[in-house]
């Protein structure tokens, strides 16, 4: 690996998607893999003979295959799927069981958010939190987001109390849809500087996609403190590139 290449964790948190439909589970892996290509994601859908239902054996095998040492997050579509996943956990050894979390969250949104969190190297609590944020979005509960800098902080070079702001216009035809949003969030998380996008946490996939930013939308980037100017510039450059879709 060259000095210019980013360091990628050798092991990432794994994911298992439990659905009553094998088609849904496999399709969800295909969808999430567009944004998280190196995360271990296993479908556990349908019965053992691929009818509608759930399979203890598929869930158990999925957890075993997804676990590489950093833990596994399991997402389920309906209540009985959760019961099947819980039963599978009962048969794991104590050490493995301690690294497996079943998250009650909207399956598609939770899976995508968790996949991106895992892809950028998040630990088990971070990936779990990302998945749960999908549930918060639907319940109306407040979700975690970066603090919004004070409006009178000004702009300019970054410093301890200085806010850097920059406005960019989206140019790619389909706006900030799933794939570019994941690319944007991945970069934002890697910068190590809290940045907001129109007041939302730049490192939260669901928060960014929830803005519904389409072509021509004005995107306001804001950050403060050490490294703020470089972080804002990096994200602005990515937005201005059109993500290769312009």
From TrEMBL:
<comment type="function">
    <text>Component of the dihydroxyacetone kinase complex, which is responsible for the phosphoenolpyruvate (PEP)-dependent phosphorylation of dihydroxyacetone. DhaM serves as the phosphoryl donor. Is phosphorylated by phosphoenolpyruvate in an EI- and HPr-dependent reaction, and a phosphorelay system on histidine residues finally leads to phosphoryl transfer to DhaL and dihydroxyacetone.</text>
</comment>
<dbReference type="InterPro" id="IPR039643">
    <property type="entry name" value="DhaM"/>
</dbReference>
<feature type="domain" description="PTS EIIA type-4">
    <location>
        <begin position="12"/>
        <end position="139"/>
    </location>
</feature>
<dbReference type="InterPro" id="IPR001020">
    <property type="entry name" value="PTS_HPr_His_P_site"/>
</dbReference>
<dbReference type="InterPro" id="IPR036662">
    <property type="entry name" value="PTS_EIIA_man-typ_sf"/>
</dbReference>
<dbReference type="Pfam" id="PF00381">
    <property type="entry name" value="PTS-HPr"/>
</dbReference>
<feature type="domain" description="HPr">
    <location>
        <begin position="163"/>
        <end position="246"/>
    </location>
</feature>
<keyword id="KW-0808">Transferase</keyword>
<dbReference type="InterPro" id="IPR004701">
    <property type="entry name" value="PTS_EIIA_man-typ"/>
</dbReference>
<comment type="function">
    <text>General (non sugar-specific) component of the phosphoenolpyruvate-dependent sugar phosphotransferase system (sugar PTS). This major carbohydrate active-transport system catalyzes the phosphorylation of incoming sugar substrates concomitantly with their translocation across the cell membrane. The phosphoryl group from phosphoenolpyruvate (PEP) is transferred to the phosphoryl carrier protein HPr by enzyme I. Phospho-HPr then transfers it to the PTS EIIA domain.</text>
</comment>
<dbReference type="Pfam" id="PF03610">
    <property type="entry name" value="EIIA-man"/>
</dbReference>
<dbReference type="InterPro" id="IPR035895">
    <property type="entry name" value="HPr-like_sf"/>
</dbReference>
<dbReference type="InterPro" id="IPR012844">
    <property type="entry name" value="DhaM_N"/>
</dbReference>
<dbReference type="InterPro" id="IPR000032">
    <property type="entry name" value="HPr-like"/>
</dbReference>
<comment type="subunit">
    <text>Homodimer. The dihydroxyacetone kinase complex is composed of a homodimer of DhaM, a homodimer of DhaK and the subunit DhaL.</text>
</comment>
<protein>
    <recommendedName>
        <fullName>Phosphocarrier protein HPr</fullName>
        <ecNumber>2.7.1.121</ecNumber>
    </recommendedName>
</protein>
């Amino acid at each position: 690996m060259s000095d210019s290449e980013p360091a990628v964790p050798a092991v990432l948190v794994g994911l298992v998607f439990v659905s009553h439909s094998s088609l849904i589970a496999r399709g969800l892996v295909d969808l999430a893999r567009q944004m998280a290509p190196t995360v271990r994601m296993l479908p556990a859908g349908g019965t053992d003979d691929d009818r509608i239902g759930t399979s203890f054996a598929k869930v158990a095998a999925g957890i075993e295959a997804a676990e590489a040492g950093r833990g596994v997050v399991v997402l389920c579509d309906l209540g009985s799927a959760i019961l099947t996943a819980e039963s599978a956990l009962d048969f794991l050894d104590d050490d493995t069981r301690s690294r497996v979390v079943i998250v009650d969250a909207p399956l598609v949104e939770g899976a995508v958010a968790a996949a991106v969190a895992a892809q950028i190297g998040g630990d088990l609590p971070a990936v779990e939190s990302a998945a749960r944020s999908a549930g918060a979005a639907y319940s109306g509960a407040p979700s975690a987001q970066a603090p919004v800098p004070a409006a009178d902080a000004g702009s300019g070079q970054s410093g301890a109390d200085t806010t850097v702001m920059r406005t960019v216009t989206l140019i790619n035809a389909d706006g900030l849809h799933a794939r570019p949003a994941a690319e944007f969030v991945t970069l934002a998380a890697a910068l190590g500087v809290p940045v907001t996008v129109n007041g939302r946490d730049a490192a939260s996939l669901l928060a960014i996609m929830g803005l519904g930013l389409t072509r021509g939308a004005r995107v306001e980037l804001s950050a403060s403190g050490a490294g703020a100017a470089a972080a804002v510039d990096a994200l602005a450059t990515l937005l201005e590139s059109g993500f290769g879709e312009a």
